[in-house]
Amino acid sequence: MNSKRVGVGVIGAGVISSNYLENLTRFPDLNVVAIADLDQERARARAREFGLRHLLVHELLAHDDIEIVLNLTVPAAHFDVSARILASGKHVWSEKPLAVSRRDARLLLDKAGRRGLRMACAPDTFLGGALQTAQRAVLAGRIGEPKSALAIMQSPGPEGTHPNPAFYYDQGAGPLLDMGPYHVTALVQTMGAVRRVSSVSSTARAVRRVLVGAGAGTEFDVRVSSQHMALLEFASGARATLVTSFDSGIRRDLLELHGTEASLEVPDPNRFAGTGRFVPLHAEPEDVPAVGSTWGRGVGVLELARSIRDDVPERASGALACHVLDVLLAVEEAARAGTPLTLESTVASPAPLDEDWDPTAATL
């Protein structure tokens, strides 16, 4: 195993970069070197904040000390930026989604495979202690044979908290592609690959209004469905109901797994921590505290780096992200077509982490 820390660079200095860098700069196995952005001043400010070098994109991609590059650009740019990173000979960690089409996602995986590089992707919330504990419980047979699941994300939409929310209602976003990856990744983690999808969609309002910030009162068009209700059929024979909505005054982030012996209430799939609840069919419920790391965004980058050094597959793989994207696009397409769709992709559930997996340990 190479004893050198893994060098990391970041492309994209938006809000999410701060969440990543807060953690990545604290992990001793990583050496965060530099950040780049088309907005040079924004990149300089983020570099000053975290004590990094500010580079132009081509300079960052040519930097010898950088092995993994985070692609934190907007979804529409994910394919082009990730392709450039791979062409430079560096591994990729991409924010979700991997791409906005199946074709582009597969092209990235093929390009990485030909060059012997890793193409990994968010979300990494499934590596947090809460979802890891749920996966271990299912694998240990605590709920019996998994038979069904319920996954719900409901909110009134981001216009009440985000000053520029229009992109959430444009192509490549909406509640399905923005929030669906968290729930579907958790479902694949615990229930396995999805085989077939049925769905319906709706849009409560064709026009929305910005509610906060300098643009408050500005109206914008809704260009995608703001609610999907889907039935996912897994290769195992299990089934799940998935609801993603920006049309609800009631807020929910819910995941329930139901088996032949018991049910498991799982904490919010968009979080790394939380206490679940084990509910036997004919006995009293009991709390299930999270066992494992509850560090936030960035643990997937660290797990990728350690996997590269150990020459083993990473858990937040491009193959997993590609299957999740396939599921979400199939939900959209099945709603438009009014007929179930069978998926061509499949993937194995990633193996759980050891309970004592520690991001703060120096292992390299």
Write the layout of secondary structure elements.
Blueprint: E1 6-11, H1 15-24, E2 30-36, H2 40-50, E3 53-54, H3 57-61, E4 68-71, H4 78-87, E5 91-94, H5 102-115, E6 119-121, H6 129-139, E7 146-154, H7 174-191, E8 194-202, E9 207-209, E10 219-221, E11 227-234, E12 239-245, E13 252-259, E14 262-266, E15 276-280, E16 286-288, H8 299-310, H9 318-337, E17 341-342
Parallel strand pairs: 1-2, 1-4, 2-3, 4-5, 5-6, 7-12
Antiparallel strand pairs: 7-13, 8-11, 8-17, 9-10, 11-12, 13-14, 14-15, 15-16
Write a brief structural summary:
The protein has helices at residues 15-24, 40-50, 57-61, 78-87, 102-115, 129-139, 174-191, 299-310, 318-337, and strands spanning 6-11, 30-36, 53-54, 68-71, 91-94, 119-121, 146-154, 194-202, 207-209, 219-221, 227-234, 239-245, 252-259, 262-266, 276-280, 286-288, 341-342.
Q: What can you see in these coordinates?
A:
It is built from 9 helices and 17 strands. The mean pLDDT is 96. A hairpin with a 2-residue loop joins strand 13 and strand 14 (262-266). The radius of gyration is 20 Å and the shape is globular. By secondary structure, the chain is of the alpha/beta class. The strands form 3 sheets. It has a 9-stranded mixed β-sheet with strand order 16-15-14-13-7-12-11-8-17, with helices on one face. The N and C termini lie close together (8 Å). The protein has helices spanning 15-24, 40-50, 57-61, 78-87, 102-115, 129-139, 174-191, 299-310, 318-337; strands at residues 6-11, 30-36, 53-54, 68-71, 91-94, 119-121, 146-154, 194-202, 207-209, 219-221, 227-234, 239-245, 252-259, 262-266, 276-280, 286-288, 341-342. Helix 4 packs parallel to helix 5, helix 5 (102-115) runs antiparallel to helix 9 (318-337) and helix 7 (174-191) packs across helix 9.
